[in-house]
# Entry
Amino acid sequence: MAGKRDKIDPGFQAKKRAKITYNDKDRISHLADDILVMILSLLSFKEAVCTSVLSSRWIHVWKQIPSLTFDAHVSLKRVARGFDISTIKRQKYVKWVNSVIQSHEAAALKEFRICLNLSNLARKAITRWLKFAFARRVQVLELDLSAKEVFFRRQFSHCAFPEELLTQSWGEASSSSKPSSDGSGVDFNFLKVLSLKYVVVTCEAFKLFIRNFPKLERLVVEGTHDLLKVEACGPSLALKHLELSCCENLKTVKVSAPNLTTLILAKVGVENLSIENVPKLVEVSADSRGDGVLAEKILSASSSWISQLEIFSLKLSAKTTLMWWSPYCVRRVLKSSVKFPHEHLKVFKFYRYFGRPDEVELLESVLENCIVLEKLVIDPDYRSPYFVAPQNPDDENEKQAVVDAFKLGIQSQLPQHIELVIL
Amino acid sequence: MAAETGTPTTLTLKSNDDELFSVAESAAILSVTIRNMVEDGCAGGVIPLDNVDGKTLASVITYMNGISAIPADEEKKKSYRDKFLSDKDFETLADMVLAANYLNMSCLMDAVSAKIAQVMEKKSVGWVRRKFGIENDYTPEEEAAVKEEHKWTFEGVETDDDN
# Structure
């Protein structure tokens, strides 16, 4: 046995060997399957699959793991410079996911995650994976097909979410020879979390999500140009968390969701925004693209729920000397909304604080009206994220000047029970 | 029940090697198996635990007493668990995980599983075999075939034990 081990692991050093205590008997292999599955679930999925090599006892254990995460970003990064190798790797990855899916044996899936920059060429494979996941009553489904490198991101034609899975009857959809259509049927009733990043999601697809997943609590859509309109409305929606980001053509957002607690909008070009019937909403976060319009829209739509918020985060637009007027508009609207008392707001974060008079006025107004405020976060970084400028040694000085002015002004008025964080 | 009578109820547990242990009911019912017995009224005399030996049961009871003495503070409970498991060798951990499974104590089960997973993390196949005394019953051809099946997986895994 020792000889065999050495062959498998030739790099092993004799000096290390002396440190290891050998066990007389193989206790771990005698543990019941469900205990081993539990242990393997705590390893990365790759490591869990690797255990199949330990001995024949282990060959099937990982196949019961209810959470499948295929994250290739780390491995692919190493070969990102050689595009051809990357393509080959990508094909290998697709094959690997296919083979895992073929041998996987768990009857129900808790989580299914794909993280790789796959283009529309892989649509067929992705459709098959989703079928597999839905047939196994998946609860958490995440597709992150973004390329980490911006270069790739531009080149890619993103894969579209296979809407036909949600419209066809399961019998038609599973005409392939996949073992996943093992007669158990598809059941969308189990899906609680759906996260789609850099996957093409159309208005029609979004509608189907809302209609077909009655238990959906968390919905995240990021990086699609094809989503123009979003409607998350219904008296019985289970939706608690809605997050829409980097959907530049998104013009209309309509939300009426009685269970919604969190709404996050970032880099969306919303023109029509309606947020109604959200009695449980406690957290709103908005990141404007460059013009501050989004923050203004949110504030305009906020009169019926702003006083119930506990966390309200507005990232105002980038401050450059040329664009100073638009954040001013936002602050003007914001000031009008903090004129009345807020009995729930506990955290106030101010990004890109520059210390101009209207900003100071706004903060004073916040301190006066947010009567249960516990935490104030100030980010005095005024540099624009939209221009990659070389690090300027003056930047630090200027930032320090902003911080100093803040300390002299607002900080001296700050009640002691409020925690202050300067980023 | 303890709260009603004012005096804490004590249960007697019997290991499979006939050792007897006294433990406060409030601590013992961390085990769903024992709680069910108590609720069904089977806890009057001695509760036999056929799948747990005395040494392991003593250890589990130490854990039960320790963790139930901590008020509802998840951070403190976690640090107690970490400390409790820190000096246990794998033999003991294996006994504990079996006992926790039998007694249906999810918090102990999770902690011990995490501890075992931690040992396996980022280690090569050879290292894990040696550490746990796992006998490799594959022929070299079989082993190569298993590796080949999920080749992509093995390429990406980095281990930190051999260098």
